[in-house]
Amino acid sequence: MLPTDICEDVHPGETADAAVERLASEKAARAAESASEAWILAADTLVLLGEEILGKPRDDLEAASMLRRLSGREHLVVTAVHLLRAGSALCRTERSRVLFAPMSEEEIRWYVATGEPSDKAGAYGVQGLGARFIREIHGSFTNVMGLPARAVYTLLRDAPDPALSTLALACA
Question: Given 5, 9, 44, 119, which residue is catalytic?
């Protein structure tokens, strides 16, 4: 893994799809600075509640606020996956609908105190303790986790490098 240090702010007027595609591309480009000959796979995920884009909460107060807004409501999870190597780039965007169960104030306080929401878009992790608050998912579960497996598979399969398409088939 190559950590990237990019600003993950959404630009004014930017759609969720455009933001995740830009951010995944920026992460891939930044990682490529350290590994210019390697294939780089980068992703970014945002939560969309109506027209409001929810990224990672800045602090526990914002995490609790996001969870209150998600409680008992449906939202959209949008993830872009970007595959990059010198002169070659592919991108896929995945969308999933998620229905949250209603959450009590006590549940919100408990969950925020676990620390899990702090680095997650929408302030929850479906693959962890946050799973207990998910009533339904329509679409890819792995997308809601932040790395849609099917999108990664198709990127590797469609890559212009035969070794990557072989890897994709081996992972199928």
Answer: 44
Torsions phi, psi for 45 (to 5 deg): -130, 140
Fold classification of 16-171 is Maf protein (3.90.950)
Domain residue ranges in the chain: 16-171
pTM: 0.89
Amino acid at 161: D
Residue 44: active-site member: yes
pLDDT in tens, 48-85: 999 999 989 999 999 999 999 999 999 999 999 999 88
With 0-12 CB in 10 A as exposed, 13-18 as middle and 19+ as buried, what is 8? Answer: middle
